[in-house]
Amino acid sequence: PPELSILSSCSPSQLEGLCSFLQLSTCPEPFLVRFCSWLLALTPDLSYTSAAILAQQLFLRRVLSLTQPPSRHLMAALTSFCSKYSHPFCRVLVAAVLQEPGEGAEQTKLVCELVEECLEPHSVQLVLSQVLEVPLSEKLLPVLQAVLGRQEVLPPELLDLLVLTLCQQAPAFATSLNFAKLVTAVLTVYQSQVS
């Protein structure tokens, strides 16, 4: 709808107010899918800040409250949004999932699925750097495994940080099978760069 062009001209506070007025954080999921398809058609593209605000308003509450796998509609909306605005999406949503205390099994699975199937290579690197910024836990090991599964070429400084983190954390994960798989994956995927 032509009215959506207002999203490109709003200030951040106006956009937050508009999202609140439209109750986007609680709108039905089928509408969420349609709304995200409209966002993809917007020209010009949304600014980074506007996309980050929309990622927060549309998805943050829904994803953090997941107690079972996301619905087909929610997954379609997430995938659609990620296809165009993966960087702000990662900055807002993935960061929140990584910092969420506790198990967060469904959230972790969701991040893994997005890493494996949706995110652009530069966003995969962003997810890796975000994981390495927080204390490593058993919950985060599958996310690292998903990143390595993409077999992306990593900048040397990011690969060095990954290897250093794994070396430092090894004693804490001495009995973890997932950690052992992760180290094996690093040595397999980046064998020419790891001495």
Q: How would you describe this structure to a colleague?
A:
The longest helix is centred in the middle third of the chain and has 28 residues. The chain has 195 residues and is an all-alpha fold. The protein is built from ten helices and no strands. It starts with 5 loop residues before the first helix and ends in a 6-residue tail after the last helix. The model has no long low-confidence stretch (mean pLDDT 91). The protein has two domains: 114 residues, Alpha Horseshoe (Serine Threonine Protein Phosphatase 5, Tetratricopeptide repeat); 75 residues, no CATH class.
Layout: helices, strands, pairs:
Layout: H1 6-9, H2 12-22, H3 29-41, H4 48-64, H5 72-99, H6 105-117, H7 121-133, H8 141-149, H9 156-169, H10 177-189
Put the structure in a nutshell.
The chain has 195 residues and is an all-alpha fold. Helix content is 69%, strand content 0%.
Q: List segments where confidence is low: pLDDT < 50 over at least 5 consecutive residues.
A: none
What is the distance, rounded to the nearest whole angstrom, between the alpha carbons of the first and last residues?
Answer: 55 Å
For the largest beta-sheet, the strand count, sense and barrel status come to: none
Question: Overall 3D geometry?
Answer: elongated
User: How many structural domains in the coordinates?
Assistant: 2
Element-by-element helix/strand order: HHHHHHHHHH
Q: Give the fraction of residues assigned to helices.
A: 55-70%
Q: Which fold does the CATH topology of the largest domain refer to?
A: Serine Threonine Protein Phosphatase 5, Tetratricopeptide repeat
> What is the CA-based Rg, rounded?
18 Å
Beta-strand content: under 5%
Number of helices: 10
CATH architecture identity of the largest domain: Alpha Horseshoe
Average pLDDT figure: 91
Highest CATH level, the class of the largest domain? Mainly Alpha
Structural class designation: mainly alpha
* Number of DSSP E strands: 0
